[in-house]
Write a structure and sequence with these properties.
By secondary structure, the chain is of the alpha/beta class. The chain is built from eleven helices and eight strands. 42% of the residues lie in helices and 16% in strands. The structure holds pyridoxal-5'-phosphate. The site of pyridoxal-5'-phosphate has 14 residues, from strand 8 and helix 10.
Length: 258
Amino acid sequence: MIRAVMSEVDVVKGLKNVLERIGVASSKRSENLPNITPRLVAVSKTKPVELITAVYNAGQRHFGENYVQELVDKAHNPEVRAKCPDVRWHLIGHLQRNKVNKVVGVPGIHLVESVDSRTLASALDAAWGRRAAGQLRVMVQVNTSGEAEKSGCKREEVTEVVKHVVENCTNLQFVGLMTIGKYGYDPSQGPNPDYVSLLEVRKDVCLSLGVDPSQLELSMGMSDDFEQAVEMGSTNVRIGSAIFGHREKKQKSITEES
Ligand SMILES: *Cc1c(COP(=O)(O)O)cnc(C)c1O
């Protein structure tokens, strides 16, 4: 069966619904968590520009892409440039060192959530320094589930990577930690172990940097579990299908769009 393509009305409804649910989940957080509303990153991968502009017009500013080339294409798209002047792009997928120049050239690049090694951090630092004034925000991605196919650094490497960014990468601003976690975890089974793990990693990192945990963001939570992630203290949720609907396989959607 072919699924109906989401319309601009549908995605705006999806956005409102997700924002409402984030609000409800925020109000359920324990009192010792900072009282800030988590940032919503609308993950627009495989989705066409018309849907991005529709969600932007409804007030959404932060958008996430996980493939560098798709991010580059969308950020340079003339319609996006004209209609979404204040868009803030997040790169949430794996970044190879030889693609850092493409990323630093993205108009509206706001945050690279997927730094996972010292060499990548250094490459990004150098590229940003050649390109722009000020600092580029980055998160360090942690492979909390330890699955071989997941990117992100190992738990035991995190502090070393973070320290490298903070001490040696003057063009980067370290803002927090990101994890994807195991797919398909059922939140009714209790707190997601990957999110518990990210909270622990943050504690370690904060101890070694001598900063308060409230100073470091946590990017965790996707369509199937963002409410639980928010209740656990997520400050940045990355949500695709709950806003934009089901995704076709990448190759197929490219053909559909062209
Ligand atoms: C695709 C993707 C998401 C969003 O996934 P949904 O389940 O559609 O919300 C979040 N984070 C990353 C890293 C992704 O690649």
